[in-house]
Amino acid sequence: MPQAFTLENGVEVKHHDVGVVEISPPTATKDIVISSGIHGDETAPIELVDDLVKEIVEGRFVPTERTLFVIAHPKAIHAYTRFIEENLNRLFAGENDHRNEECVLANRLQCHVKEFFSLSVNSEAEHSRERWHFDLHSAIRDSKHYMFAVIPASSHATDIRPMSSFLQFSAMDAMLLSRTPSSTFSWWTGETFGALAATFEMGRVAPLYKNDMTEFEPLKAGIKALLSNQTLDESTSNQTFDIYKVSRTITKTDDAFTLAFSNEAANFTFFKEGETLAEENGKEYVSEAGGEAVVFPNAKVAVGQRACLLVKPFTPDLSLPLYVNVERDPGPIAAS
């Protein structure tokens, strides 16, 4: 049942649903959604969110920004499985029919986020508040970049340089800029609400409470800095930060689809120009001019879903606004 209480420091805590908790300080300049557990076997994000909420409720950390914390899929978490019937992170594109529990859950989560962001437009001053969304995941394979973020494409003129600053401040390894719409949670919040949104990949999957959470301390420190309205100075991080743009998406259109390399290949594995990447009913996909790296390769996805992202290094001019535009190269283009 929904319940609410106010801490001695004035922070209000509202329990909206199983795994959905809103933190509301007396004043705020940002509305932030931090979600985890979209895939039940990606447990480090769940532990991170749980720790943050505990610190707030126990008064050990006092945020200044309004935040919605989400642990999305309890049943899949308890079963230690990615999903029960359907990939939840492909169901955020509006109202779903009720064909399975993931569809029902996606509808509920969209309602909670819509209400959370809608409450920030009650006045002109509140309408100007920044909206953020971090959807925290863990990769199911090795990666050249242990910690990276995927920035979804949007038809909004949302300058993502503050997100880039946050990622560097938090010692993330890389940022990947998308070019096509999708139906992921972070795409939906970016496209629907103009939020600064990203899907974070935090290391590798592991059983619950078997993660080395010290690996994620810089990210946790970055989140706490954002939640307490501290300046995010990326120059304080000495870590290399790489930026990529998606060059192509390979979609599986038939069960005959196969990858030309191991399904366990690490994210950001590079293929030279002309090397074969995949094959489907006689159609061959080869690496384009200059070569391409693969991200999220998976020949076992359902027909119609993304089987692989192909990416190239990208160096934007960060003296200019950086927009991640639908079907265009990222850069200083205000709308798609």
From TrEMBL:
EC number: 3.5.1.96
Domain AstE/AspA barrel-sandwich hybrid residue range list: 240-313
Note on how the cofactor is bound: Binds 1 zinc ion per subunit.
Needed cofactors: Zn(2+)
Catalytic residue positions: E201
Keywords: Arginine metabolism, Hydrolase, Metal-binding, Zinc
Binding-site residues for Zn(2+), renumbered to this chain: H39, E42, H137
Enzyme class per UniProt: hydrolase
Boundaries of every Succinylglutamate desuccinylase/Aspartoacylase catalytic domain copy: 29-223
Catalytic activity: N-succinyl-L-glutamate + H2O = L-glutamate + succinate
Gene3D superfamilies given in the database record: 2.40.50.630, Zn peptidases
Any one GO molecular-function label of the UniProt entry: succinylglutamate desuccinylase activity
Keyword Methyltransferase on entry: no
Pathway assigned to this chain's UniProt record: Amino-acid degradation; L-arginine degradation via AST pathway; L-glutamate and succinate from L-arginine: step 5/5
Pfam families, per the entry: AstE_AspA_cat (PF24827), AstE_AspA_hybrid (PF04952)
Family (UniProt): Belongs to the AspA/AstE family. Succinylglutamate desuccinylase subfamily.
Function noted in UniProt: Transforms N(2)-succinylglutamate into succinate and glutamate.
Protein name per its UniProtKB record: Succinylglutamate desuccinylase
